Amino acid sequence: MATRKKTSKSSKKASGSKTTKQRTKVVCISHKEDADGISSAALIRQAFGGDSILVDYPSQMEAITQASLDEKLKSLYICDLGLSKKNQDEFVELMKTLRKNKVSVTYIDHHDIDPKIVKDLEKIKVKLIHDINECTTVQVYKKFKSKLSEHSPFIAACAAITDYMEDRPTGSKLLQIYDRQFALISATVLTYNIVGHQKDPDYLLYLVEELADSKFPHEIPNTFEFAQIQVDKLAQIIAKVKEGMKTMKNIGYMEIIDAGASGAVNFVLGLSGKDVGVAYKERVDHGIYAVSVRGSRECKVHLGKIVNVLATELGGSGGGHDKACGAVIPKPKINKFLKEFNKKLN
Ligand SMILES: [Mn+2]
After folding, report:
1. Which architecture characterizes domain 25-221 according to CATH?
2. How far, in Å, from the CA of 36 to the mean position of ligand 1?
3. DSSP-derived pairing of the beta strands 276-283 and 251-255
4. Interval 190-213: pLDDT, tens
5. CA of 170 to the centre of ligand 1 (A)
Protein backbone atom coordinates (compact mmCIF):
# COMPACT_ATOMS: atom_id res chain seq x y z
CA MET A 1 0.00 0.00 0.00
CA ALA A 2 1.31 3.41 -0.88
CA THR A 3 2.02 5.93 1.82
CA ARG A 4 -0.72 8.46 1.87
CA LYS A 5 0.10 12.06 2.32
CA LYS A 6 -1.56 14.20 4.92
CA THR A 7 -4.90 15.37 3.64
CA SER A 8 -4.79 18.92 4.92
CA LYS A 9 -3.00 21.68 3.10
CA SER A 10 -4.89 24.41 4.88
CA SER A 11 -2.98 27.20 6.54
CA LYS A 12 -1.94 26.77 10.14
CA LYS A 13 -3.69 28.66 12.86
CA ALA A 14 -2.21 32.10 13.27
CA SER A 15 -0.38 31.65 16.56
CA GLY A 16 -0.24 34.47 19.05
CA SER A 17 -2.44 36.71 17.00
CA LYS A 18 -5.11 38.43 19.00
CA THR A 19 -7.05 39.69 16.00
CA THR A 20 -9.37 36.73 15.69
CA LYS A 21 -11.68 35.65 12.87
CA GLN A 22 -9.18 36.27 10.11
CA ARG A 23 -10.64 34.35 7.25
CA THR A 24 -7.92 32.40 5.45
CA LYS A 25 -9.35 28.99 4.66
CA VAL A 26 -10.16 27.62 1.22
CA VAL A 27 -12.59 24.69 1.11
CA CYS A 28 -13.97 22.67 -1.77
CA ILE A 29 -17.06 20.53 -1.20
CA SER A 30 -17.49 18.07 -4.05
CA HIS A 31 -19.37 14.95 -5.07
CA LYS A 32 -17.64 11.77 -3.90
CA GLU A 33 -19.49 9.14 -5.92
CA ASP A 34 -17.97 9.57 -9.37
CA ALA A 35 -14.93 10.68 -11.32
CA ASP A 36 -16.44 14.07 -12.16
CA GLY A 37 -16.81 15.03 -8.49
CA ILE A 38 -13.40 13.65 -7.47
CA SER A 39 -11.68 15.27 -10.46
CA SER A 40 -13.36 18.63 -9.84
CA ALA A 41 -12.06 18.54 -6.27
CA ALA A 42 -8.59 17.67 -7.61
CA LEU A 43 -8.46 20.59 -10.06
CA ILE A 44 -9.80 23.06 -7.47
CA ARG A 45 -7.11 21.81 -5.11
CA GLN A 46 -4.44 22.22 -7.77
CA ALA A 47 -5.57 25.77 -8.55
CA PHE A 48 -6.30 27.06 -5.04
CA GLY A 49 -4.99 24.56 -2.47
CA GLY A 50 -7.17 24.23 0.59
CA ASP A 51 -9.19 21.35 1.97
CA SER A 52 -11.40 18.96 0.04
CA ILE A 53 -14.63 17.69 1.57
CA LEU A 54 -16.24 14.81 -0.32
CA VAL A 55 -19.95 14.13 0.09
CA ASP A 56 -22.85 12.21 -1.39
CA TYR A 57 -26.30 13.70 -1.97
CA PRO A 58 -27.78 12.72 1.42
CA SER A 59 -24.90 14.42 3.27
CA GLN A 60 -24.50 17.44 0.99
CA MET A 61 -26.49 20.04 2.98
CA GLU A 62 -25.04 18.93 6.30
CA ALA A 63 -21.50 19.39 4.94
CA ILE A 64 -22.25 22.85 3.55
CA THR A 65 -23.84 23.84 6.87
CA GLN A 66 -20.77 22.63 8.77
CA ALA A 67 -18.39 24.48 6.47
CA SER A 68 -20.43 27.67 6.76
CA LEU A 69 -20.01 27.62 10.55
CA ASP A 70 -16.22 27.73 10.20
CA GLU A 71 -15.13 31.23 11.18
CA LYS A 72 -11.89 30.83 9.23
CA LEU A 73 -13.60 30.11 5.94
CA LYS A 74 -12.59 32.58 3.24
CA SER A 75 -13.64 30.95 0.01
CA LEU A 76 -15.86 27.99 -0.69
CA TYR A 77 -16.10 25.98 -3.92
CA ILE A 78 -19.08 23.67 -4.36
CA CYS A 79 -18.70 21.21 -7.24
CA ASP A 80 -20.85 18.68 -9.08
CA LEU A 81 -23.62 18.75 -6.48
CA GLY A 82 -27.01 19.33 -8.10
CA LEU A 83 -29.89 20.85 -6.20
CA SER A 84 -33.41 19.48 -5.87
CA LYS A 85 -36.79 20.96 -5.02
CA LYS A 86 -36.27 19.65 -1.53
CA ASN A 87 -33.00 21.39 -0.70
CA GLN A 88 -32.68 24.33 -3.11
CA ASP A 89 -34.27 26.94 -0.80
CA GLU A 90 -32.18 25.81 2.15
CA PHE A 91 -29.14 26.02 -0.13
CA VAL A 92 -29.92 29.65 -1.02
CA GLU A 93 -30.37 30.50 2.68
CA LEU A 94 -26.97 28.99 3.51
CA MET A 95 -25.39 30.94 0.67
CA LYS A 96 -26.96 34.15 2.01
CA THR A 97 -25.37 33.56 5.40
CA LEU A 98 -22.00 32.86 3.81
CA ARG A 99 -22.18 35.97 1.65
CA LYS A 100 -23.16 38.11 4.66
CA ASN A 101 -19.95 36.87 6.28
CA LYS A 102 -18.06 37.95 3.14
CA VAL A 103 -17.18 34.38 2.20
CA SER A 104 -16.53 34.09 -1.53
CA VAL A 105 -18.63 31.25 -2.94
CA THR A 106 -18.20 29.57 -6.34
CA TYR A 107 -20.82 27.01 -7.34
CA ILE A 108 -19.84 24.88 -10.35
CA ASP A 109 -22.29 22.31 -11.66
CA HIS A 110 -24.05 20.86 -14.67
CA HIS A 111 -27.26 19.40 -13.23
CA ASP A 112 -30.64 20.81 -14.05
CA ILE A 113 -31.31 23.91 -11.91
CA ASP A 114 -34.46 25.93 -11.21
CA PRO A 115 -34.11 29.34 -13.00
CA LYS A 116 -35.47 31.01 -9.86
CA ILE A 117 -32.53 29.61 -7.86
CA VAL A 118 -30.09 30.93 -10.49
CA LYS A 119 -31.55 34.41 -10.00
CA ASP A 120 -31.42 34.12 -6.20
CA LEU A 121 -27.77 33.08 -6.32
CA GLU A 122 -26.82 35.82 -8.78
CA LYS A 123 -28.53 38.41 -6.60
CA ILE A 124 -26.28 37.57 -3.63
CA LYS A 125 -23.21 37.33 -5.90
CA VAL A 126 -22.49 33.65 -5.62
CA LYS A 127 -20.19 32.98 -8.57
CA LEU A 128 -22.22 30.57 -10.62
CA ILE A 129 -20.51 28.46 -13.28
CA HIS A 130 -23.28 26.35 -14.72
CA ASP A 131 -23.56 24.61 -18.08
CA ILE A 132 -25.71 21.51 -18.51
CA ASN A 133 -23.68 20.71 -21.64
CA GLU A 134 -20.27 20.05 -20.08
CA CYS A 135 -19.33 18.03 -17.02
CA THR A 136 -18.24 19.91 -13.91
CA THR A 137 -14.51 19.15 -14.21
CA VAL A 138 -14.43 20.44 -17.79
CA GLN A 139 -16.03 23.67 -16.56
CA VAL A 140 -13.50 23.94 -13.72
CA TYR A 141 -10.74 23.42 -16.28
CA LYS A 142 -12.11 26.08 -18.64
CA LYS A 143 -12.57 28.63 -15.90
CA PHE A 144 -9.26 28.18 -14.07
CA LYS A 145 -7.01 26.93 -16.90
CA SER A 146 -4.32 29.54 -16.17
CA LYS A 147 -3.87 28.18 -12.63
CA LEU A 148 -3.74 24.52 -13.68
CA SER A 149 -1.00 22.15 -14.82
CA GLU A 150 -0.42 20.79 -18.32
CA HIS A 151 -1.87 17.52 -17.09
CA SER A 152 -5.24 18.98 -16.06
CA PRO A 153 -7.02 18.57 -19.44
CA PHE A 154 -6.43 14.84 -19.08
CA ILE A 155 -8.22 14.77 -15.73
CA ALA A 156 -11.06 16.78 -17.28
CA ALA A 157 -11.27 14.40 -20.27
CA CYS A 158 -11.52 11.40 -17.91
CA ALA A 159 -14.32 13.09 -15.98
CA ALA A 160 -16.17 13.86 -19.22
CA ILE A 161 -15.94 10.19 -20.23
CA THR A 162 -17.40 8.91 -16.96
CA ASP A 163 -20.24 11.46 -17.11
CA TYR A 164 -21.06 10.44 -20.73
CA MET A 165 -20.11 13.97 -21.81
CA GLU A 166 -16.99 13.40 -23.91
CA ASP A 167 -19.03 14.26 -27.04
CA ARG A 168 -19.70 17.84 -25.91
CA PRO A 169 -17.89 20.85 -27.43
CA THR A 170 -15.10 21.24 -24.87
CA GLY A 171 -15.15 17.66 -23.61
CA SER A 172 -14.50 16.31 -27.09
CA LYS A 173 -11.70 18.79 -27.74
CA LEU A 174 -9.94 17.76 -24.54
CA LEU A 175 -10.33 14.07 -25.34
CA GLN A 176 -8.77 14.62 -28.77
CA ILE A 177 -5.53 15.73 -27.15
CA TYR A 178 -5.00 12.17 -25.93
CA ASP A 179 -5.15 8.70 -27.33
CA ARG A 180 -8.79 7.62 -27.00
CA GLN A 181 -8.09 4.13 -25.63
CA PHE A 182 -5.58 5.50 -23.14
CA ALA A 183 -8.12 8.00 -21.85
CA LEU A 184 -10.90 5.40 -21.74
CA ILE A 185 -8.94 2.88 -19.69
CA SER A 186 -7.69 5.61 -17.34
CA ALA A 187 -11.18 7.01 -16.80
CA THR A 188 -12.62 3.54 -16.24
CA VAL A 189 -9.95 2.43 -13.78
CA LEU A 190 -10.35 5.70 -11.92
CA THR A 191 -14.12 5.21 -11.76
CA TYR A 192 -13.86 1.64 -10.44
CA ASN A 193 -11.47 2.81 -7.74
CA ILE A 194 -13.88 5.57 -6.74
CA VAL A 195 -16.96 3.34 -6.74
CA GLY A 196 -15.17 0.59 -4.84
CA HIS A 197 -13.91 2.97 -2.14
CA GLN A 198 -17.11 4.78 -1.23
CA LYS A 199 -16.77 3.62 2.37
CA ASP A 200 -13.10 4.66 2.59
CA PRO A 201 -13.11 8.49 2.75
CA ASP A 202 -9.34 8.63 3.33
CA TYR A 203 -8.69 6.78 0.10
CA LEU A 204 -10.99 9.12 -1.83
CA LEU A 205 -9.12 12.13 -0.45
CA TYR A 206 -5.85 10.42 -1.37
CA LEU A 207 -7.14 10.07 -4.93
CA VAL A 208 -7.97 13.79 -5.00
CA GLU A 209 -4.42 14.59 -3.89
CA GLU A 210 -2.76 12.28 -6.38
CA LEU A 211 -4.82 13.67 -9.26
CA ALA A 212 -4.12 17.22 -8.09
CA ASP A 213 -0.47 16.18 -8.13
CA SER A 214 -0.82 15.48 -11.88
CA LYS A 215 -0.69 11.70 -11.59
CA PHE A 216 -2.25 9.41 -14.16
CA PRO A 217 -4.58 6.80 -12.63
CA HIS A 218 -2.12 4.01 -13.58
CA GLU A 219 0.63 5.76 -11.59
CA ILE A 220 -1.38 5.45 -8.39
CA PRO A 221 -0.43 2.12 -6.79
CA ASN A 222 -2.77 -0.87 -7.14
CA THR A 223 -5.47 0.93 -9.12
CA PHE A 224 -5.53 -1.57 -11.99
CA GLU A 225 -5.52 -4.56 -9.63
CA PHE A 226 -8.40 -3.02 -7.70
CA ALA A 227 -10.31 -2.32 -10.91
CA GLN A 228 -9.98 -5.98 -11.88
CA ILE A 229 -11.68 -7.02 -8.65
CA GLN A 230 -14.49 -4.55 -9.35
CA VAL A 231 -14.93 -5.85 -12.88
CA ASP A 232 -15.33 -9.36 -11.53
CA LYS A 233 -18.00 -8.16 -9.09
CA LEU A 234 -19.86 -6.51 -11.96
CA ALA A 235 -19.78 -9.72 -13.94
CA GLN A 236 -21.52 -11.40 -11.00
CA ILE A 237 -24.11 -8.61 -10.92
CA ILE A 238 -24.97 -9.28 -14.58
CA ALA A 239 -25.93 -12.83 -13.64
CA LYS A 240 -28.03 -11.62 -10.71
CA VAL A 241 -29.83 -8.97 -12.75
CA LYS A 242 -30.73 -11.56 -15.38
CA GLU A 243 -32.36 -13.59 -12.63
CA GLY A 244 -33.99 -10.95 -10.43
CA MET A 245 -35.05 -8.15 -12.77
CA LYS A 246 -38.75 -7.34 -13.24
CA THR A 247 -40.55 -5.13 -15.71
CA MET A 248 -43.55 -2.86 -16.02
CA LYS A 249 -44.76 -1.38 -19.30
CA ASN A 250 -42.14 1.39 -19.42
CA ILE A 251 -39.43 0.33 -16.98
CA GLY A 252 -37.15 -2.49 -15.95
CA TYR A 253 -36.51 -2.51 -12.19
CA MET A 254 -34.76 -4.45 -9.51
CA GLU A 255 -33.98 -4.28 -5.82
CA ILE A 256 -30.26 -4.74 -5.25
CA ILE A 257 -29.14 -6.44 -2.06
CA ASP A 258 -25.38 -6.97 -2.04
CA ALA A 259 -23.98 -4.43 -4.51
CA GLY A 260 -24.44 -0.76 -5.32
CA ALA A 261 -27.61 0.30 -7.12
CA SER A 262 -25.63 2.57 -9.45
CA GLY A 263 -23.42 -0.35 -10.49
CA ALA A 264 -26.40 -2.53 -11.36
CA VAL A 265 -28.71 0.00 -12.98
CA ASN A 266 -27.08 -0.03 -16.42
CA PHE A 267 -27.49 -3.81 -16.58
CA VAL A 268 -31.16 -3.49 -15.56
CA LEU A 269 -31.62 -0.96 -18.35
CA GLY A 270 -29.78 -3.01 -20.95
CA LEU A 271 -31.08 -6.47 -20.09
CA SER A 272 -34.70 -5.39 -19.62
CA GLY A 273 -34.99 -4.09 -23.17
CA LYS A 274 -36.95 -1.11 -21.79
CA ASP A 275 -35.99 2.53 -22.31
CA VAL A 276 -35.73 3.19 -18.57
CA GLY A 277 -33.98 1.12 -15.90
CA VAL A 278 -34.38 1.48 -12.13
CA ALA A 279 -32.22 -0.14 -9.45
CA TYR A 280 -32.71 0.52 -5.77
CA LYS A 281 -30.95 -0.44 -2.61
CA GLU A 282 -32.05 -0.11 0.99
CA ARG A 283 -30.01 2.06 3.29
CA VAL A 284 -30.64 -0.09 6.31
CA ASP A 285 -30.09 2.48 9.05
CA HIS A 286 -32.00 5.23 7.32
CA GLY A 287 -35.30 3.58 6.36
CA ILE A 288 -34.86 4.77 2.80
CA TYR A 289 -34.05 3.42 -0.62
CA ALA A 290 -31.23 4.89 -2.70
CA VAL A 291 -32.58 4.76 -6.24
CA SER A 292 -30.62 4.91 -9.50
CA VAL A 293 -32.34 5.60 -12.81
CA ARG A 294 -30.94 5.39 -16.34
CA GLY A 295 -32.49 6.04 -19.74
CA SER A 296 -31.57 4.58 -23.12
CA ARG A 297 -30.72 6.69 -26.16
CA GLU A 298 -34.32 6.28 -27.28
CA CYS A 299 -35.68 7.73 -24.05
CA LYS A 300 -36.92 11.19 -24.95
CA VAL A 301 -38.13 12.54 -21.59
CA HIS A 302 -35.99 14.29 -18.96
CA LEU A 303 -35.79 11.62 -16.26
CA GLY A 304 -34.08 13.91 -13.73
CA LYS A 305 -36.94 16.40 -13.81
CA ILE A 306 -39.61 13.69 -13.48
CA VAL A 307 -37.78 12.01 -10.60
CA ASN A 308 -37.21 15.35 -8.84
CA VAL A 309 -40.96 16.07 -8.74
CA LEU A 310 -42.09 12.51 -7.97
CA ALA A 311 -39.53 11.86 -5.22
CA THR A 312 -40.44 15.14 -3.51
CA GLU A 313 -44.15 14.24 -3.66
CA LEU A 314 -43.39 10.97 -1.90
CA GLY A 315 -41.42 12.62 0.90
CA GLY A 316 -38.00 11.91 -0.58
CA SER A 317 -35.72 13.87 -2.89
CA GLY A 318 -34.06 13.38 -6.22
CA GLY A 319 -33.02 14.71 -9.59
CA GLY A 320 -30.13 14.84 -12.01
CA HIS A 321 -29.66 14.56 -15.74
CA ASP A 322 -32.02 13.67 -18.57
CA LYS A 323 -30.75 10.08 -18.91
CA ALA A 324 -29.06 9.50 -15.54
CA CYS A 325 -30.48 10.50 -12.20
CA GLY A 326 -31.09 9.33 -8.67
CA ALA A 327 -33.45 9.62 -5.76
CA VAL A 328 -33.90 8.92 -2.10
CA ILE A 329 -37.31 7.36 -1.40
CA PRO A 330 -38.80 6.50 2.01
CA LYS A 331 -38.88 2.72 2.32
CA PRO A 332 -42.69 2.23 2.43
CA LYS A 333 -43.11 4.37 -0.69
CA ILE A 334 -40.88 2.45 -3.09
CA ASN A 335 -43.67 0.49 -4.82
CA LYS A 336 -45.70 3.64 -5.23
CA PHE A 337 -42.64 5.33 -6.70
CA LEU A 338 -42.18 2.56 -9.28
CA LYS A 339 -45.87 2.54 -10.27
CA GLU A 340 -46.16 6.33 -10.53
CA PHE A 341 -42.87 6.61 -12.39
CA ASN A 342 -43.99 3.96 -14.87
CA LYS A 343 -47.26 5.88 -15.35
CA LYS A 344 -45.52 9.23 -15.90
CA LEU A 345 -43.46 7.67 -18.70
CA ASN A 346 -46.54 6.87 -20.79
MN1 LIG B 1 -20.98 15.34 -12.92
Report:
1. 3-Layer(aba) Sandwich (3.40)
2. 5
3. parallel
4. 999 999 999 999 999 999 999 999
5. 15
